């Protein structure tokens, strides 16, 4: 493994454990038992390091998104999407837990996040239209409300990792957290579903 990748792994570990603000490049170098110069050779500052980790997370998410369009049952795919992305988000959870820090200290990353949200909303809009045609989404819901749903969906995922920080760090059963995450995110969908959509919702989530 290249040293650059080892630095990223160590930084990711420390950011998750201590938070972005508490970790310096010197602390990363000390933990790796290498010189500070060896770290700054690959990453001149912490912003570059955080930016690379954010880019890595996006790449992992995009691999899942590429397979999303091939799903035959779109509603089921949407309901299960948090399951597919949870482990990636968990590995990079500092990006969610330290969201306010990123907004203040790393505006370039925050701008990328906003652009990504806009792109996802544009891509998902026709999918929600199709769900209306299939009888799963209520037809009387205006497009503006669907856009609001997509915006809130991103915010609620971030809030989950912030709100459940202690529980996540102390858990010995990640599957329980994953299940909680799946149910937590999907609660947003329920008010928008038709009776047929609710039936699929309950079947997919194994709810009575």
From TrEMBL:
Keywords: DNA-binding. Gene3D superfamilies: Tetracycline Repressor, domain 2. Residues 1-61 form the HTH tetR-type domain. The keyword Transmembrane helix does not apply. Residues 24-43 bind DNA. The keyword DNA-binding applies. GO terms for molecular function: DNA binding. This is TetR/AcrR family transcriptional regulator. It comes from Aureispira anguillae.
